[in-house]
Amino acid sequence: MSDAKIKELETRIKILEHLVSTLTVQTTKKVKVKKAKDPDAPKRAPNAYNFFVREMKKLEPKTDMKELGRMWREDFLRRMTAPPGPRWPLKLRILTRKR
């Protein structure tokens, strides 16, 4: 083999070695670092379900979470299938009283 072919093969080998090394680096598993929680950070606002559970626990303290979830679902479905009523019932009562 000539010197030119040997040098060309050596450069191709170096390129292939570099590609293989980058492939092995990319396939390694990255470890996610969990951020430290700030103890002074504000808490999230409670959603409607949390308010519902709190109110139901006041009325019936021994009710389990499974039962509360069923009650929430039934209440939601009942409201979704109910015919639409006045949008602002309090304002409607005030307006009808003035007449």
TrEMBL record:
UniProt-recorded name of the protein: HMG box domain-containing protein
